[in-house]
Design a protein that fits this description.
It is a single chain. By secondary structure, the protein is an alpha+beta fold. The protein contains 15 helices and eleven strands. It has a four-stranded antiparallel sheet with strand order 1-2-3-4, with helices on one face. The chain has a three-stranded antiparallel sheet with strand order 7-8-11, with no helix packed on it. The longest helix has 21 residues, at 49-69.
Length: 400
């Protein structure tokens, strides 16, 4: 067999037969051994020798830049390995226990079957878009496409995973760019998200009799607190003299175990002022709770908490939401949830003319942009109102 001709084409490029061998030198390792990266390139058939050399030089430059610029990449790492690293290195330092718990559940349930054994280099924008287009979740035994809200939350988890991969040098850039997510159905967008001022009296009438449940619902409505913040209130957080509520904790549920953690963000630690009705409600609730403590005795587990179960244990948020749904079933307010009470509070305040920045701080949002994006429709109606107010002023001036 004839020996293949070998020739040096350029620095780091050797031709052997029809193929070119690239060698990129990467310095020395800790043992003073030279580090080399190699690659074989075969030009397309039908090109001249001169064209083949030119193509080989171009490919060598690309290969050299790749080696020198992203030498530490781990693109062959599989998705499940990235997840392990994420929860070992990143999550314990940057995420709350409840967030870690929820992320692990969502990743296991939604992502592992599809992405688990895929290499990072094989997970592209198109692959992620295809996942969101085809993936279904099982709701009450029935497969249903992901809702836009669920898709957005899952996408946020993927973004966090791949951002971590980029910062650690596993991949050059995140594939979570220009991903196509399910869009809201126009009919879905028309679903009611809050009570109007006209509906409010009828809703309030349903909760006018005292009960611990009614009190929680009214506190949520009157303050706009997150449900976890409300259930995390302790009696020492309430200053009746100064009419203040101090938001310092949120009640979280990790695998059925409840405990108090810090609120969602630094801006969520805040003070809220109470109106007279709210003060009256909480004082009545305090009296009733003291009676209950006397009846239960020392087994009343958390006398320091404002809202508890009948045995003094932490009050479960999902149970509270289920109770609300049952209570409203068959009424015109079936659409209401614990979180929509918060939306109602913010909407009523915006329509009442309260400044957007004040409302953002009142809700404990991380920034005014979040408030503005969440309540765009309400703000638009307020802007229309400003035009109407100006019209009224002009008419009073008898300007034609």
């Amino acid at each position: 067999m004839a020996k293949e001709e070998t020739r040096n084409v350029d620095t780091g490029i050797i031709q052997r037969g029809k193929s070119y061998r690239f060698t990129v030198y990467m310095g020395y390792d800790v043992n003073h051994r030279q580090i080399r990266k190699t690659m074989t390139y075969t030009p397309p058939s039908g090109v001249t020798k001169r064209q083949a050399d030119k193509l080989a030089k171009e490919q060598y430059i690309i290969f050299s830049n790749y080696c020198k610029g992203v030498y530490n990449l781990k693109e062959n790492m599989r998705f499940h390995e990235l997840v392990d690293d994420y929860f070992c290195v990143y999550a314990p330092v940057n995420l709350k226990p409840i967030t870690i718990y929820n992320y692990q559940k969502q990743i296991t349930y939604h992502f592992m079957a599809y992405f688990g054994n895929k290499r990072l280099k094989d997970i592209s924008t198109a692959v992620i878009s295809h996942f969101f287009a085809a993936h279904k979740s099982v709701i009450k035994g029935e497969e249903k496409p992901l809702s836009p809200g669920s898709a957005k939350r899952l996408y946020g988890i993927l973004q966090s995973l791949f951002k971590f991969a980029v910062t650690q040098g596993y991949i050059r850039q995140t594939p979570c760019i220009n991903v196509i997510l399910p869009r809201k159905n126009p009919m879905e967008e028309q679903k009611k998200m809050f009570l109007t001022l006209e509906e409010l009296p009828y809703f309030l009438k349903m909760f006018e009799q005292y009960s611990p449940f009614n009190t929680v619902i009214l506190v949520l409505l009157f303050t706009g607190m997150r449900s976890g913040e409300c259930l995390g209130l302790q009696w020492r957080d309430i200053d009746f003299e100064r009419r203040k509520l101090h938001i310092r904790h949120t009640l979280t549920d990790v695998g059925g175990r409840h405990f108090l953690t810090s609120p969602k963000s630094a801006t969520s630690v805040r003070d809220l002022y109470m109106n007279e009705k709210l003060i009256s409600l909480l004082k009545r609730h305090q009296q009733e709770q003291r009676k209950l403590q006397c009846e239960v005795g020392e087994s009343f587990l958390h006398p320091e908490m404002v809202f508890t179960s009948s045995t003094g244990n932490y009050k479960d948020r999902s149970t509270l939401n289920t109770t609300l749904k049952r209570f409203l079933k068959g009424t015109e307010f079936e659409y209401m949830t614990l979180h929509k009470l918060r939306h109602t509070n913010a909407t009523l305040l915006l329509n009442g003319g309260i400044d957007l920045k004040v409302i953002s701080e009142h809700l404990g949002h991380a920034g005014i942009r979040i408030t503005a994006e969440t309540y765009t429709a309400v703000l638009d109606s307020s802007r229309i109102r400003t035009a109407d107010v100006m019209e009224e002023i002009i008419q009073k001036c008898n300007f034609l």
